[in-house]
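Entry: Lysine-specific metallo-endopeptidase domain-containing protein
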Amino acid sequence: MIETFTDAYRKTQDVITKETFEKDWDSFLKTKIKKLMGDDGLNDAEAASLTKLQNDIKYPKGAAKTSRSVEADAILEAAKQDDANKLQDRAAALKFLRHVYFISKRGAQSIWVCSPPKRYANWTYDEFAGLNKVELKSRLAHKTEIFSTGNMNKMSAGTQDALAWCQKVLISLASAKNKVKKDRDLVSRWFADENTDDAKLDALIEKLTAGFKKIRDVCNSNQLVFSDDTVDRSTQPNLWKTTYALVHDEKLHVIYVEKVLLGRSGTKLEWAITIVHELSHREIKTKDHFYSESGLKPNAGSFPSDKALENADNWGFYAANVNGALTKGKIQAVLKEP
């Protein structure tokens, strides 16, 4: 079963390499799209090829209008529909790429989004497995996506904010290392308990510096993907509805955006904190001991310093605090003992 974006991505690489598509499509996929899909992730230098693929599906042979049936027919034709052997996989590869987008580029940073149809309960390969041609065409026709354009724009803006936050955090941590009191106080506020002495605070500063460098580098990479967690959305709907975002243990840099973040206004604060939070899970292996609603104030009893350093929400709210993104009221509400 395909469970993650990385699984679907690797399967798509394999299908494009090994399977035969319609002649013109086969040449295009095995040259341009193969270059787009690098082993370490998507290659923004080939983003125009992804746009061409999508336009050729939406407007085949220069069609003036697109529709659900037009797209479905275009994919079936490109997938060499007269060859029933592994037709579902070839169609799944094209449908997967039809819903992957290059959203923005700013300096070294590039943002990608995978936004599959809302009606899919699985990644395309499992969604199409065992279908006959009529059933496959019906399933290919689904095109209303899980993410809106507004959602995608917030993913891009949130990543830019998270990158800026990390850069400012690293400046603050350098000052904290140099004994600047206001910067050391910020570290203490979110990570030190009453038993933390100067030596331990210095150790915390070193660990935070190493961690925020890793988060910064992912935010500033050209291969960060925001994706729907299609399987969790269908198999664990209650979890999906009550979660902001999550990450899985996989090679590619992927953040899965869940219902809570999609279903509210999505303030800049929420998106940036969530991105730092999730990338701390991915890059530093933080945990979710406590969330902000429970309180994030370190204390020697229920939430000692070592546990605060492991806690993803402390990383996110510390970054927000350094960047002046938290009101005094918000700080007071969050800094209670869990």
